[in-house]
Design goal:
Layout lengths: L7 E7 L2 E8 L1 E6 L2 E6 L5 E5 L2 E7 L2 E7 L2 E5 L3 E6 L2 E2 L6 H19 L6 H21 L4
Parallel strand pairs: 1-9
Antiparallel strand pairs: 1-2, 3-4, 3-6, 5-8, 6-7, 7-10, 8-9
Helix pairs in contact: 1-2
Length: 143
Amino acid sequence: MAELAEALHLEVATPLGRALSVEVRSVQAPSVSGEFGVLSGHLPLLASLKSGILHYVIDGREHRAAIGPGYAEVSPETMRILTDQFATPSQIDVKAVRQELATTEATLRGLSKDQEADPEKLEQLDRAIAWCHARLDVAQERV
């Protein structure tokens, strides 16, 4: 069996450009089928991601970031994530996110009472709420 290299290159790309490009020991990401982990030497994999927390280890220290829905492509040397949303703890304004969450939940409650509510609008609100929760969860490490 071939010896595995210790480093895995992690890249996160958003519509605004490359949000993260680092060498890591391991990565955990939230897929639509559950959380999964990746080490260097991992078999090729494509996964759909949901909003949640991206965990990655650099020099023995765990880092966390909030990511939105997207896709992950894994090869033995690299993990690439394509997502519309990415935030590190220092980029998160907890007060603003809590306000956004309250507003979005109120909108969802209003639409939920409407029996003819647009399913696409309900889905957008559910995703917005999940993104708020991901950011708040990540921010808890610095609050």
